[in-house]
């Protein structure tokens, strides 16, 4: 440990991140989705037609991986593919009504889970933590 406590701080941040990832993975159980699939569904629901290359970029994954994630979501009926009117070679991914419904349920479950996890902190500490994390993330 360094005298300034940064090693402990980094370890604590990593522990919290691992805890949050585990909780997210567990939270997705009722929908039988992986975290990648849930994040992809969120990106697709937020857009009005998303290209696979844009999905890969937003998720910071390889295009082949984005294709696999999209295929799994399509097999579940959560998204559909349609031709891109601006480029006949490309397809657009769009959420189905079921996909939007599932995304809303996941968002509600995540909000409840975040309240459970971060609700242990007083409101002032949560605001301070959010400010500090934004500063470090930028």
Task: Explain what you see.
With 138 residues, the protein is of the alpha+beta class. The protein is built from six helices and three strands. The chain has a three-stranded antiparallel sheet with strand order 1-3-2. β2 and β3 form a beta hairpin. α2 (35-46) crosses α4 (63-75) and α3 (52-59) crosses α4. The two termini are 26 Å apart.
In a few lines, what is going on in this structure?
The protein is of the alpha+beta class.
Envelope shape:
elongated
| Sheet having the most strands | 3 strands, antiparallel
CATH overall fold name: Arc Repressor Mutant, subunit A
Strand residue percentage: 5-15%
The side-by-side strand order for the widest beta sheet comes to 1-3-2
Low-confidence stretches: none
Give the fraction of residues assigned to helices: 55-70%
CATH class: Mainly Alpha
List the helices and strands and how they pair.
Blueprint (H helix, E strand, L loop, with lengths): L5 H22 L7 H12 L3 E2 H8 L3 H13 L3 E6 L2 E9 L1 H22 L4 H15 L1
Helix pairs in contact: 2-4, 2-5, 3-4
Features:
138 residues, alpha+beta, Arc Repressor Mutant, subunit A, 6 helices, elongated
